[in-house]
Design goal:
Elements (H helix, E strand, L loop, with lengths): L2 H14 L9 H17 L11 H9 L4 H14 L4 H17 L21 E2 L2 E2 L1 H13 L11 H9 L5 H10 L4 H10 L1
Antiparallel strand pairs: 1-2
Helix pairs in contact: 2-4, 2-5, 5-8, 6-8
Length: 192
């Protein structure tokens, strides 16, 4: 059975047990939230600790997101033009799928902070920065990044650009599919 079929089967099993699967238009709501928050941030009026409505927080919780995760994408987008809103949505979609399928909709209580990350110059199989982005990607999938650490920050985007111009969401999917086997990610990167 292919991975997509297994994913669909798991989602249906969760729904059959009464597990809440966010509505099929969650992505539209996410995009609207991103646009509204970006406009507020541009106007100097956005504080991620207090400016989300109850509905906003419910949406973020339903996809396994914390308040700061969306804000980091908004901040970088408004200040530098990247990552784009579509990149933020695609990353959120991978996180949402992992949250629903692997975590059964249960948020992790563990956090990975900057001190837990490998150094920027650490290498894996001759690939500098890979150990760091692997830890960040796995923590992003699990919802374990602390509020001061962002997946798809400038350093991550630089790495992904230099190694095949990989979209952040695609990198997350490959890390997830590797099942924790770093050699699979290395082989994939070297094939690009």
């Amino acid at each position: 059975m292919g991975k997509l079929k297994r994913l669909a089967k798991k989602l249906l099993a969760y729904a059959g047990r009464g597990f809440h699967v966010p509505s099929m238009n969650w992505n539209d709501t996410f995009e609207s939230l991103f646009e509204r928050c970006a406009a507020d941030y541009k106007a100097g009026n956005f504080d991620y600790n207090k400016d989300y409505s109850a509905e906003d927080l419910a949406l973020l919780a339903s996809v396994g997101y914390k308040r700061r995760e969306l804000f980091d994408f908004i901040e970088d987008y408004v200040d530098g033009g990247v990552p784009t809103p579509s990149t933020a949505l695609l990353v959120a979609a991978v996180r949402r799928d992992y949250f629903l399928v692997e975590q059964g909709g249960n948020a992790s209580d563990k956090e990975i902070n900057r001190d837990d990350l490998p150094s920027r110059d650490e290498e894996l199989d001759g690939i500098s920065y890979l150990p760091r982005i692997l830890v960040k990607a796995r923590a992003k999938l699990r919802g374990q990044l602390d509020p001061d650490t962002m997946f798809s920050c400038g350093g991550d985007r630089n790495f992904l650009s230099k190694h095949g111009n990989i979209a952040p969401a695609d990198f997350l999917r490959h890390v997830w599919a590797s099942g924790g086997n770093d050699s699979k990610v290395v082989a994939w990167l070297k094939s690009l």
